[in-house]
Design a protein that fits this description.
Rossmann fold, five-stranded parallel β-sheet, 4 helices
Amino acid sequence: MRANDAPPQVSRNRAPVRVLLVSPSELVGARMSRVVADHGLEPVHWEPDAKARAPVADVVVLACEDIDRGVDLVRSIKSRSAHLPLLLIDGGTGRRSRSRAHLRLVAALDAGADAYLAYPFDTREFLVRLHALVRRSRIMSRLPTD
């Protein structure tokens, strides 16, 4: 990777970005955790249930293969923490047609996901999207409320 291609790093003047990782697969969760930690972000694993409150985090990354389950989890997380930006990684798009993948994207965004990536994805794009969600969230938190 060339220097210009290096993924963004967390600022030294600020606490690390806490990334809440939700994945049904331990393998996928471990891989995401490694990528996040290797780039100066703080991974936090969470298994949501009906009563569990999300730990304090700057952004949620939800990985799923079953889009219906993913949409349900997006709605559940957003109903408890609407302000928390959420990136859905769809692992079930591998052999789907382009139009079916688009329907999955629309379902995820309609459920409340703030961003969507289909697996497999580029690590740099993943990191850039995370940072964009955190940046937008921090800007929104400084705006006055009515």
